[in-house]
Amino acid sequence: MIPGKENLERSGSTQTEKEGAFALFDFEHFLRRVIKNWYWFVLMAILGYGISWVYSKYYAQRIYASNLSLSISNNTASYFTPNQSINFIWGQNSNQDGIYLKKMLLSRSHNEYLVKQLDLYVNYTTKGLIKQTYLDKYDSPVFLEIDRSHLQQVNYSITLIPKGGDRYEVVLPDEGETTSLYSFATENFSNVSRYSRPANKVIAVNEWYVSPNLKFKLVRNPQPSQIKFDNIIFSLSTVNQTVNSLVSTIGVDFDKEINTIMIISKSGYNLNGTVNFLNTSVDELQKKRLIDRNTVDKNTENYLFDNLAKIRKKLDSSATLLNQMKITEGLYDIKDRDEKSLQRIKDLETKKAVIITKINSLNNIKNTLASQNLDRMISMNAAGIEDGSFNATVSELKALYLKRRELALIYTPNSEPMREINRLINEARGNSTGSLKNYYTSYLNELSKIDHQIAGESADLVTYPEKERRYLDVERGYNMIEATYNSLLTKQNETQIRVATNKSDITVIDNAKNLGQGPIAPDVKKTKYTIIGGLLLLPLLILGLSEALDNRVRNIKELLQATRIPLLGVVGKNTHENNLTVLDQPRSSISEAFRGIRANLRFLHKENDQSKVILVTSSVGGEGKTYVSINIASVLGLSGKKTILLGMDLRKPKIFGDFKIDNKYGISNYLTGEVKMEQIINKTRIADLDVATSGPIPPNPSELLMSQRNVEFIQELKNHYDFIIIDSPPVGLVADSFELMKYADASIYVVRHEYTEKYMLKMITEKYHKHEVQNLGLVYNDYQSQQGYGYGYGYGYGYGYGYFDEDKNYREPTLIRVRNKLRKLFGNT
């Protein structure tokens, strides 16, 4: 049975696959190409590793990060630390104070203070042969101290080269001087007259270096680093540049379980620099928070002191009046008075005095809000209120006032930024005033209720004589003033205690430390894998692209699945000097392959006594059509079958060269009637094999091949030969072969490995399945397996077994040799 034909017979007419449809991508062949080109991947991996190593060592600028954690206590009493109300803020899972602190840490004012305090506008670096490394200020043996009153050039490299002792040479760039210089006092640029490049100069520590664009001195580091540098490079940045770059490197997060714990991080090019900044930043924040807290309490203490002084005068005056009445009227006590009723009146008037005191405190707070001078704000505790929301609003209002002062230096009053900040201020002020109105309403309602109760209790007093009623009124007035005084005195004592015990509500849990943390960026390992992976992907993409664009047939299994045409056999690569492989190398594997094809031919036609006409064609020239024709004719002749080989490719005659026959007369001459049949038939060294060459190239080859004389010529040959092998023209170029197939008992279509284009097989495949071409079989030519010969389907038995002539030159592939050695080593046979 012909290989592949049994599948065709089973599928029959129910086969629904599209004929001639090849896979767009041959993954199996692609994988073999990848393995074959393994050395490119090894080379790319080595190259990628080298590039990543150079990048990591000389070009990757490491970024480090340090962390600091702190706790925010919830017992503060300041508008500027807005978490007075424990119940309101922490009890409701809110973190208003933490958010405020975060904004403060990221605020321009706080970071600008740190920039000026720590001279962060001075950048320290050192440069080796290739790489420039950022330094922490305290890594440098000397500090750069500038004269703030002198104009300075920013973003300008100043190189210090040690000259021994405390002397350094100042080396400036060869160019880059500018007339636009920066003032650190006003934080603005000014233009100066053009000047020449300042000369290099050797200066000592604490000696001023003065030039038109610079004025600075070197200060010895009190704790010098043990690292010795060949050079120190300074450069100045503007305050604004430094603040902006600084804020972008700060991160603030809250603990997921306890939202009063903040985790502050700082990234930078130097680990020590990030550690020093974080610790200093939080230290300054603690101081500022304590000042803010004490500011409110001090304001409250002063407010209470002033009011106590006023109330004291009223209390003294009331006590004097009461004593005078006792003396002049002789009333030390009133007979038959209702003590319980008078006590109730006294208690109600005491409550009234406390409420009036709170209302007065609210009035003070309200007036302070209206004055925009929030630094004079007193505590809401003086009004008997704890409201974290109000405190947060006041804190926000204060921040907005500061922001408006900053914007006023840049924008005009009617500009969009100023209008927006004013809108936010009015909104915040409205929110705070709205909160106060609610407390006013509550206190006034309570005051009205107390007045009503007092009026009810005082109804019985009208029964007393006038003199006694007058005495009771004075006594009640004294009691009320005394209650107000005692209330203020209590608030004053509370405030004084709070001032005495105040401390920052920020507690550092873990300071930032240099623990030898590795860099957080760049991800050197990821970069290395990316570079290596990218370079490994390069040959993979090239191979994949070439595979996708290469449309040649290279897979026998795919060929059979796409065409569903039976395979007669597979022929290996011809290394012989001519096409007479079967005649010259009868023991070769290729000769054995043609014998297999000869055996399979009988399945294409019926077994009978008639002569058989076998046509050999292909898609285009160069696919081995003539080579297959010659060798099939040879194996048939050697088997004792009377065979003739006809060279009917009249456009491109070839056969005569291999058999060394004179092509002066051939089939073209016979078809034109110039010669007789006997004159074009040539004998070969095989007794049963004759050859009729094509002869000279005629002007009308198609007409000759399709002529009635050619049909009669083939019929006449059937009377003399068992097999007639026709070497016909390619069907992809001319239609001659399709006409000749009508007279053939079987047709052989030659497909060449890695040469025939897939699309070329579509036409013959469609004609075969439409039954326009009968008894067709494929021969796969020029195939060479990576593991030696022996694919199957009638194609030899394989190298290495001493069966073929090629075995003496055969060398097993490396993978096969390794496999055989492993089997031998472990005793597997």
UniProtKB/TrEMBL annotation:
EC number in record: 2.7.10.2
Stored SUPFAM superfamilies: P-loop containing nucleoside triphosphate hydrolases
Sequence intervals crossing the membrane: 38-56
Catalytic activity: L-tyrosyl-[protein] + ATP = O-phospho-L-tyrosyl-[protein] + ADP + H(+)
InterPro entries to which the protein is assigned, alphabetical: AAA_dom, Bact_polysacc_biosynth/exp, P-loop_NTPase, Wzc-like_C
Superkingdom assignment: Bacteria
Limits of the AAA domain: 612-755
Annotated GO MF terms: non-membrane spanning protein tyrosine kinase activity
Family the entry assigns: Belongs to the CpsD/CapB family.
Official protein name in the record: non-specific protein-tyrosine kinase
Species the sequence originates in: Kaistella gelatinilytica
